[in-house]
Amino acid sequence: MSADLLTAKPRKPEASRQSGSRQSPAPKLVVLTGNPNCGKTTLFNALTGLRAKVANYAGVTVERKEGRLLGDSTATPVTFLDLPGAYSLSPQSPDEQIVRDVLLQHCRDVPAPDMVVLVVDASNLERNLYFATQVIELGYPTVIALNMMDVARANGRELDCARLARELGIPVFPMVASSREGVPELRDHIIAFAQNPDAHPIGRALCQLPPDFKAEVEQIARSLPHWRKGPDARLSAAEAVLMLTDERYAPRADSGESADLLEKVWDARQRLEQKSIDWRTAAIEARYACVGAIQKLVVCETLSLSETPSDKLDRILTHKVWGTLFFIFVMAVMFQSIFTLARIPTHFLENGIAWIGSGIGRLLSPGDLRSLLVDGVVAGVGAVMVFLPQICLLFLFIALLEETGYMARAAFLMDRVMGKVGLHGKSFIPLLSSFACAVPGILAARTIEHPKDRLVTILIAPLMSCSARLPVYTLLIAVCIPDKQIAGPLSLPGLVMLGLYTLGIVLAMALAWLAKKTILKSHMPLMILELPPYRRPLIRTLFRHMWERASLFVQRAGTVILGINILLWFLATYPRNPNFENSYRVQRHQLTALAAAENPASQQLDEKKLQAKLRQLDKELAGERLRGSFVGRLGRFIEPAIAPLGFDWKIGIGILSSFAARELFVSTMAVVYNVGSGGNTDEDRLGLVQTLREQKRSDGTPLYTTLTGLALLVFYAIALQCAGTAVVIFRETNSIRWALAELLCLGAIAWAMSFLTYQGGRFLGLQ
Amino acid sequence: MTEATVMTETTVQPITALPAGKAGIVAALDLPGDVRARLLELGLVVGTHVEMVRFAPLGDPVEIRFRGCNLSLRRHEADGILVETTP
């Protein structure tokens, strides 16, 4: 690097700000960056309190977390940006791409940082310093938050922080972010910086590159379109090193890089090869030499532990037998709690929603407004709320697994199994959770760093038979599958149930394998996973994580799910036929008048009879309304499409209504067949089963045969009939196209498999 | 695969050929660009002391340790890490 690069003056952050129109004083942007697992988010939480804003970076599904300094004086406001974890400025994942883009000022929606806080794990100094020195050399006003000092000490390492600060040329703050130790000092320092930014030391060049390499770097830096003299020249130099080293480098049109830049890079590489310098490794090796030297000066081993406490624990937790058993135990507890334990709060929520609904129902007179509020809005809010207990519990578990470090071990144990179909070890938990509900399952796929692995996991998650399918399975099996014992405890209904779960799993694995072979082929199956030391989790962090996930779900997905539910209510309620409504009103009136005219002696008895008759009339009205509604008409409209599967238009209504929630199939069928809103009591359920069995086709043969039942069950096992899941796929992939493609694809597969079941069965002469 | 140099009595072999618990010195990374670059950046440069910690219950992936941190990687990639060991 030339002299002007090395003597760069402190940057004037305001000058590089993109928006000049801001009210003064503009908040100082302080970015937090560091390796994964270095405690960066813990520090961010300690600095910002509970006021973080979570969003996505434009165009990608990388999370952007921002927050104001806790209790800052309004004179010089400070905003923190918590960047994702990164091992290097040469990106290998979308997370690292964001880190690089923000720090090199290529990220359009993030202004140039005013200050960088580098979070460094003291117990893993050498590797952390690799990334840290890369960032220091960018020339920002920089400080080091030397975190996990307690772990380093426990591992028998003393660090000379003053020496480290001298070697790096920037302030170093030793701390234990989880217990807030050392955080106030950093906070004061940041406030002082915000008041007088120019006085702060900036990062300088640390790493000694081979002279020939350095000369080439400088040449490339000068040909960068965004090359700036003076203060920002260091950014260009750093970028040139990355370009020269990165085998996959391609010019970025969006930053004005032209194709002849690539040629220059190639030429430079060739010249280096002639001088027998390996351009792929020269910069990395030089940096490790520099980092190694610093570490030797700074770290003093007071104890030489052959095995840390974490290593000892790993002996058991990744053991072939004990580790596997422990893993099964943890997964069983997690699954049970989202499958069973979550029902308790869900039950309370449902009752609460019903109570609010009936309260509003009492306040308003019957009519369209009451129907909209009770059956549309309140029921829609309920449809969003029912997901919350499962989401909260699952994310509490996931946070616990992540914070303790067990998540990486779980992935280590499961990778071989999931790898068979091209998935990642971390896909296991999202898929397992999807057996309870695909919505939290898909949200849990966020733990998978690799975007394609994550996408495949999201797309196959809805095939796991969720708990909302159970009432549908139970009803249809009771109606259509003969209760025959096959062998010992194995009965035909049980076998069908097992078959439906298996169908989902097998299909999911097949689709995952297919997707990874074709459209989602990763050019490199990179599965390098750090196994961080085990740590004691902070309860505060666990609940914060849970709270964040739950509120994000409500904000992003909940609103859309509510909208869809109101739309579905509208379709199931309108249009009304005034003739029917009138005739029912007349019939009702007649019944009541008749009862009043009867002998007063038998009034008690008649009152009961009257109520039963009125209830029956209400059921008929509800059935008539649904059959005449838009959904009813749509059911008739799609009948030709579903007739080859053995379904009639009334089943079509059930399928369409299930979109709000699959279990609604049961109550919808009850309404369609005039047996009330059924399914709430055993008596109702039996009545519904009986009614369905009695249904006939126009030619007089029974409608719900074993074959129709099987075809319908297969359809329910596969099709994505859940607005919640579709919306969450849309939000989590950040693409409405993936959500629609998933909807259509699974719909088509479900149709085809049902068709094969029904027509194949008929071909074989089954009934 | 196993190439013994009689002169120095050292053996260069893939790290996965070592039994769990044994260590060696990185001699070369025979891997495609991406993986190689990432392993280098994580500190697996030539001359680094690296230990074969354990194999997962089903034999894949494997866990290795170097510069005080533990990494899990698939056998497919780990096979390309060539280490030098003294008997």
What structural category characterises the helix and strand content of chain A? alpha/beta
How far is it from the N-terminal to the C-terminal residue of chain B, by CA? 17 Å
Helix fraction bin of chain A: 55-70%
How many individual domains of chain B?
1
CATH topology of chain B: SH3 type barrels
CATH top level of the domain at 3-199 in chain A is Alpha Beta
Q: Tell me which protein chains meet in the greatest interface and how many residues each side has.
A: A-B, 41 and 32 residues
Strand content of chain B: 35-45%
Q: Let me know the largest β-sheet of chain B.
A: 7 strands, antiparallel
Helix and strand content put the structural class of chain B at: mainly beta
**What name goes with the CATH superfamily of the domain at 3-199 in chain A?**
P-loop containing nucleotide triphosphate hydrolases
Helix content of chain B: 10-25%
Task: Walk me through the structure.
The complex is a heterodimer of chains A (767) and B (87). Chain A has 767 residues and is an alpha/beta fold. Among the domains of chain A are: 3-199, P-loop containing nucleotide triphosphate hydrolases (Rossmann fold), CATH 3.40.50; 211-301, Helix Hairpins, CATH 1.10.287; 578-621. In chain A, the strands form three sheets. A seven-stranded mixed sheet of chain A has the order 2-3-4-1-5-6-8, with helices on both faces. In chain A, strands 7-9 form a two-stranded antiparallel sheet. Chain A has a two-stranded antiparallel ribbon with strand order 10-11. Chain B is mainly β and 87 residues long. Chain B has a single domain, classed as Roll (SH3 type barrels). A seven-stranded antiparallel sheet of chain B has the order 1-2-7-3-4-5-6. Chain A binds chain B through residues 87-88, 90, 92, 123-124, 126-127, 130, 245-248, 280-281, 284-285, 288, 314, 318, 320, 323-324, 408, 411-413, 415-417, 419, 425, 524-532, and chain B through 32-43, 45-46, 54, 56-61, 63, 67-74, 76-77. Strand 12 of chain A pairs antiparallel with strand 6 of chain B, so a sheet runs across the interface.
